[in-house]
Amino acid sequence: MTTQPVQAFEPPYVMAVFSNIRTDDDSGYPETLARMKEIVRTNPGYLGYESARTPGGLGITVAYFRDHESLTVWRKDLEHQAAMKQGRADWYESYTLHVATVERSHGFVRNG
Question: Where does the ABM domain lie (predicted)?
Answer without folding.
Answer: 13-85
